[in-house]
Structure to design on (211 residues):
């Protein structure tokens, strides 16, 4: 069999990595991300699952400074929450199987055989979104990482569609606590491309009212 020139092989490897970029941890199983745009309208938020991965704020090798140990739920809620893994374990915990992080080009960057976590909507129901009028449903939710990466959901996605049954804050992967990616990670498992709304170093859940 004809051998591939080492230089060409190196280029192929670099191309494969760039197709599914890495975040501050720099591990091959990671995805990279782009910061979200300015707060969207309700229609824009509902389309947020079309976002693609891009570069992150943090530099590879400096991920330790981004590790988070708690998630703050704040904004347009009646009760702000500061949640740790111990707090999540007191809520209804789901066990998920075969969870894949899929890049925009279809590459599977990471597969977890099992994960444990809590539905985002259960957390939001505990915080209670402020709603002056019953018909006022123009809210959007930002899941923000410590490196300022954001994933966006509309209120209707979380509470009035199948998406809401598949957005989790995870605290365990493959029967081990999450450590190098913060202690909690958000993922929307029903997205066709799960990478863009896979938020490592999760630090806050922010509820906002659309203008």
């Amino acid at each position: 069999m004809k051998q591939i020139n080492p230089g060409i092989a190196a280029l192929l490897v670099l191309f494969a990595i760039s197709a599914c970029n890495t975040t501050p941890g720099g591990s091959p199983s990671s995805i990279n991300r782009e910061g979200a745009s300015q707060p969207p309208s309700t229609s824009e938020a509902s389309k947020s699952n079309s976002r693609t991965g891009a570069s992150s704020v943090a530099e590879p090798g400096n991920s330790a400074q981004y590790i988070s140990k708690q998630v703050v739920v704040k904004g347009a809620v009646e009760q702000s929450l500061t949640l740790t893994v111990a707090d999540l374990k007191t809520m209804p915990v789901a066990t998920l199987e075969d969870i894949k992080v899929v890049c925009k080009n279809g590459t599977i960057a990471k597969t977890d055989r099992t994960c444990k976590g809590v539905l985002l909507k259960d957390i939001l129901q505990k915080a209670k979104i402020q709603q002056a009028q019953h018909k006022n449903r123009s809210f959007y939710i930002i899941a923000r990482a410590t490196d300022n990466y954001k994933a966006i959901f509309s209120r209707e996605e979380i509470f009035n569609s199948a998406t809401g049954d598949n957005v989790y804050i995870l605290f365990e992967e493959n029967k081990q606590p999450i450590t190098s990616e913060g202690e909690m990670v958000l993922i929307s498992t029903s997205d066709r491309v799960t990478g863009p709304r896979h938020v490592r170093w999760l630090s806050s859940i922010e509820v906002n009212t659309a203008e």
The two ends are 63 Å apart (CA to CA). The chain has one domain: 6-209.
